[in-house]
Write a structure and sequence with these properties.
There is one protein chain. This protein is of the alpha/beta class. The chain has 18 helices and 15 strands. The chain has helices at 31-37, 49-59, 76-79, 85-99, 114-117, 121-132, 152-161, 184-197, 230-238, 251-265, 270-287, 289-295, 309-320, 338-344, 356-366, 375-383, 391-396, 405-423; strands at 7-8, 14-19, 41-47, 69-73, 105-110, 137-142, 175-179, 202-205, 220-224, 242-243, 299-302, 323-329, 350-354, 370-373, 388-390. Strands 1-2-13-12-11-14-15 form a 7-stranded mixed beta sheet, with helices on both faces. Helix 10 packs across helix 13.
């Protein structure tokens, strides 16, 4: 399949649209960070041995603590209809919840569509919820690689969870709901900043424990911390919440815009926000000086993978002086990305979707100083002398906010430093 001619998209940005072979992880990968975030949740993947190997490999072997994820493996006997799959799943869930009484939230995660695994997980979750309520809440979502990619696993999980959020009363005061998994240390930093700014009624979704689900209603103002949560945002808006449009909190500019627009939604002046964040902003700007010296003038090419590509590209160009050759993203959600698209300007070449062979051809022809891509493409590109950055590391690492701006920059500068040492 050949690439379509560049089209003019939102904000007059040229977009190459492609649909072909793609190189991405499936949505099951989201379990790796979600099970660490939600401390009383368990993720039970219903799928094949291949899916079990993927999760185990991606999450690593935990020696000193039992992990809060597992796979209920579907074998030939189940697929052939020789066993009642629902009955077998009920047995697995009962054993699990008996053995692990600390679990308060169970996610049944489909590794394939229901038509493939011959099991309606939605019906199973509803049946099991009635059986184990109120001690355990049970929700299902799809992590299938046919239906989701990489970070969409978190989006599917949170969107499936939204219907269980309590309904805020009609006279409830305005509250800010920050949506998207963040490391606890980053969450604490943001909570302190919001309090200093004057926004005290702040909650985070997902919460650290499932029994602390935030209430949602017409007075709820939603601020996305991650750019890949389109379905979750839609579900929250259907519950009556209002979304705050802003840049995403990567780097100094993104973090300041994110905080300032949140404050404006509560009637707080930008001048006050500037006073509150002055010291943290100054530290971040100073900390970016060293990585900027290494990265300024270097070219970078993004393969589509995490949906973090646009805000990261904006940060690398505007704050570190890098040259953007192509910024690929799996899906271009123009509503969520409106401010990022405007900030990038019309000169940036965007691509949506992927035909991996064609994109590899474009990348090799441009010979960038660095490529951001998935694990499957990194080694072949490194073998050709092209420095790479694993996109998955950008999701696993604390990279949001002022205090992490230099750490985010270092994730891009370190591969170049390593390359220089190897060729020296």
């Amino acid at each position: 399949m050949s690439a379509q001619p560049s089209e003019i998209g939102c904000g007059e940005l040229p977009v190459i649209k492609q649909r072909g072979q793609r190189e991405v992880f499936c949505g099951l990968t989201g379990i790796v960070w979600l099970h660490r975030k939600i401390q009383d949740a368990f993720f039970l993947v219903v799928g094949s041995r291949t899916c079990a190997h993927l999760i185990q490999s991606a999450a690593g072997v935990m020696i000193f603590a039992e992990p809060r994820f597992a796979t209920a493996i579907i074998d030939e006997r189940d697929l052939a209809g020789l066993a009642d799959a629902h009955e077998e799943l009920d047995k697995v869930v009962t054993r699990l919840l008996t053995r692990r009484p600390e679990i308060r939230q169970l996610f049944l995660v489909g590794s394939c569509p229901s038509e493939v695994i011959k099991l309606d997980l939605g019906r199973a979750a509803e049946r099991l919820s009635k059986q184990f309520a109120p001690r355990v809440s049970i929700v299902n979502y799809s992590g299938s690689g046919i239906e989701t990619t990489f970070t969409q696993g978190e989006d599917a999980c949170l969107a499936a969870w939204v219907p269980l959020l309590p309904q805020a009363s009609s006279d409830a005061p305005p509250n800010l709901l920050v949506v998207g998994s963040l490391p606890d240390i980053v969450e604490d930093q943001f909570k302190r900043l919001f309090a200093q700014i004057g926004i005290s009624n702040v909650e985070f979704f997902p919460p650290r424990v499932s029994t602390a689900l935030p209430a949602v209603g017409p007075a709820t103002k939603v601020l996305l911390a991650q750019p890949f949560l389109g379905e979750t945002a839609r579900a929250l808006l259907e519950r009556g919440a209002q979304r705050i449009d802003a840049l995403f909190p990567f780097g100094v500019h993104g973090t300041q815009d994110w905080l300032t627009r949140a404050a404006a939604a509560f009637g707080i002046a930008a001048e006050h926000v500037e006073e509150v964040i002055a010291s943290a902003k100054a530290r971040a700007i100073k900390a970016l000086e060293a990585p900027r010296q290494r990265l300024a003038g270097r070219s970078i090419f993004f393969f589509p993978d995490s949906q973090l590509e646009l805000p990261l590209a904006r940060f690398l160009r505007d704050e570190l002086g890098m040259q953007l050759l192509e910024v690929g993203t799996p899906y271009l959600h123009r509503g969520l990305m409106a401010h990022e698209l405007a900030a990038l300007g019309p000169q940036v070449q965007l691509s949506e979707g992927q035909d991996v062979e064609l994109q590899l051809d474009r990348c090799k022809a441009l010979r960038p100083d660095m490529v951001v891509c998935g694990l499957g493409l990194a080694n072949p590109l490194e073998a050709e002398g092209i420095t790479t950055k694993w996109s998955i590391e950008l999701v696993f690492s604390p990279v949001h906010g002022f205090e992490q701006a230099a750490d985010l920059a270092a994730l891009f500068s370190r591969p170049l430093v390593r390359r220089l040492k190897l060729v020296a």
